[in-house]
Amidase domain-containing protein
Amino acid sequence: MLRKQGGTYVGSTVMDELGFGVTGGNLHYGTPINPASPSLFPGGSCSGSAVAVSAQLVDFALGTDTTGDVRIPACFCGVLCFKSSHGVVSTLGTIPNSQSLDAIGWFARDPSVLHRVGDVLLPAATGGLIQTKQLFFADDCFQLLKVPNEKTINVIENAIHTLPGYQPPKHINIGQYISSHVPSLKDFCEPTMKMLEGMSALKALSTVMLLLHRYEFKTNHEDWVNTVKPKLGLDISTRVLQAVNFTSDNIKSLYIVRNELRAALKNLLKDTGILVLPTTAGYPLKRNAKQRFSSGFEDRICAFAGIATLSGCCQAVIPLGNHDDHPISLSFVAAHGSDKFLLRNVLYMYSSIREQVVLASQLVTAPVINRDADFGAAELLKEKGNSAFKGRQWSKAVEFYSDAIKLNDTNATYYCNRAAAYLELGRYKQAEADCDQALLLDKKNVKAYLRRGIAREAVLNNQEALQDIRRALALEPQNKSGLLAERRLQKKLR
């Protein structure tokens, strides 16, 4: 189809063996160099396609996406990409990996090229041009990033503010929404504290995605793997064996989750909505890293992939530059079948987004000004915050604690209490930052260590969370919540 419309076929590109990796390496052909960050892996599985576009060897490149295979390398290599809705672009001619998840995707540096490829591959859009669009920011997902909002959420909000046709954006907890609207997912959620319910749902989506992938890969390729016994890289071999040895009596429930999730997102986004979230929750590994792959790394990289993968929704990735020498990109998800709607919006928004990226990179954080402390008034505000907290008015509690901090920013308890309220709201990045400040003021604050541990556990930083819990237990060895958290984290890290 592309060649008939004037595209020139150049060649094939390297990818993880069998499309079964996330780093972009290949035992037989090597690992393509990431043009955006040569010291980092390019991401996989479609590493070669992303690298070819990033290195300006081609205008666009094709790939297949099963569990993030075009979205992850696009993020790591700093290029645009588009994952089409499941089943909208034919996969005839590809070797199926997991037919319920496989989708065609493509990379480009220029949004007009990304759009033009979509015009060729996608069926004609139904309905007229949509005049009013609604963006939904997945605030709980942004909590997983160690990137300031000025470089992510604010960039998009400022960009659409300059463009006609967009309603004021809405902020949601997508994990909690999914937990409430995908009832069959509860069977895959790990037992956890109620405050982590949303994050537990996102982790469960990733689990269902990987289980479905393993089941269908086994159905398609078990005989070939057992007969040929292919030589594969260590990481790939481990994952392929997990798939080939996969057993489950609950296969039907995987497909039920998929159907419920698609309906839930259609109900949320309808024909005019776009969900905005980070592309990945983790950064690419360094090529010379001793530990090439871990389950924790996979969890962070795939934390958000399951939303569009399992629902079959379309997803576009837009790079936003770097932060601390790591790539930043955001993803835009639209309802299944809304591919051309999403591509038009990417093309429409892109110039304004790039302008805001430049402005964000030039921002200098204003110095914090210490105000004269009014200790009595600050203590009164703290007590009001405590009352609001007990009444489960978390946002009101945050306001009272914040006002107390404005009057006295040297009291660790104010920060620690506000962190507890942030945890209840699922605002883990703010909770961690408050605990950091509390510990700067009081190095023996047990509650700050415990709450920072909970915040880090919520965003899958389990190793750092365990360190915090152990610091708390060193100060207070019989702390019951600390002992429970230590056992839970040890189990997760096995």
